[in-house]
Amino acid sequence: MTLGNYVKLEPDVEKVLRIREGSFRVETRTVNDPTSKQAKPKTVGVMDVISEDGKPVRKEFSTMSEKLATQLKVAHDNHTLYTHNVGIKRVGSGYVTEYQLRLF
C-alpha cells in the first residue's frame, strides 16, 4: 500500500496547490542516482500542501529542480506563494523535464 502523503506530478497535468504559510524550506536528502545507482545527497525545495486540486490535504511537495525551487523561493520571499493558488505542471521526461509554474 502506498501512502498518499506527498504530491505526485503526472506528465502534462497541472496540479493546483495551496501552500501552508511559511512552509517553504530547503533540505538535504539522500537520493539514489538513476545512472550510477549510488546514494547521493541532493538539495531539495520542500513545502507543506494544504489543498490539492481544491481538496483539503496534509501533504508535502518537494522538487530537486533548481529552476523550479528558485521560482518557488522568490514567491516565498514576496509572499505570493501563500496568497495565491500554485499551478505546477511537469512537461517532458528524463533530462529534458521542465516544470511550468503559474501563480493565480
Which helices and strands, and how do they pair?
Layout: E1 15-19, E2 25-32, E3 39-52, E4 55-63, H1 66-77, H2 80-83, E5 86-91, E6 98-103
Antiparallel strand pairs: 1-3, 1-5, 2-3, 3-4, 5-6
Architecture overview:
It is built from 2 helices and 6 strands. 15% of the residues lie in helices and 46% in strands. A hairpin with a 6-residue loop joins β5 and β6 (98-103). It has 104 residues and is an alpha+beta fold. Strands 1, 2, 3, 4, 5 and 6 form a 6-stranded antiparallel sheet that branches. The protein has one domain.
Name the features.
single chain, 104 residues, alpha+beta, 6-stranded antiparallel β-sheet, 2 helices, 46% strand
Quick recap of the structure?
The protein is built from 2 helices and 6 strands; from the N terminus they run E-E-E-E-H-H-E-E. The protein is α+β, with helices and mostly antiparallel strands. It has one domain (15-103).
Tally of domains: 1
Quaternary form: single chain
How many distinct beta strands? 6
The separation of the N and C termini measures: 34 Å
Radius of gyration: 14 Å
The number of helical runs is 2
Can you write the helix and strand succession as a string? EEEEHHEE
Biggest sheet, open or closed, and with what strands and sense?
A: 6 strands, antiparallel
